[in-house]
Predict the structure.
Amino acid sequence: MSSVSELRLSRVAHPSAIKSLRHAFMAFLRANDVSEDCAADIATAVGEALANAAEHAYGENLSGLVEVYARVEPEGLVVEVLDRGVFVERPRREGRGFGLRIMKAVARTVSIDHDGGTRVRMVFDARYVRSQPLEAS
């Protein structure tokens, strides 16, 4: 089975790193034959989770990593965005705060776990992905 069915990336959780993570994730979607329209929606949802990690995971004087793990499975495309930070509340700004709504609108399921950081797990329908899932090992 081709190695394109799985992706693991990590970068410093900073807004400047999010763009490169999104580009790499889009390349993964293209390699798995996800249509451009679907890929754009999925990448937007994942980008929102990445942006949230960059904005909320670590304090002003702290740094840490954000990780993206994506895998084609029989249930669909499973994507996890993880950080090891402690949620830092930021002042609300007008026109902001739609990230979770976007994730829930695009993904079939979204779950968030705050044990030892934050893990956002999104599952996207299998119909979006035309490549075959990895076989269980």
Remarks:
- The first helix runs from residue 15 to 31.
- The domain at 3-128 is CATH 3.30.565.10 (Heat Shock Protein 90).
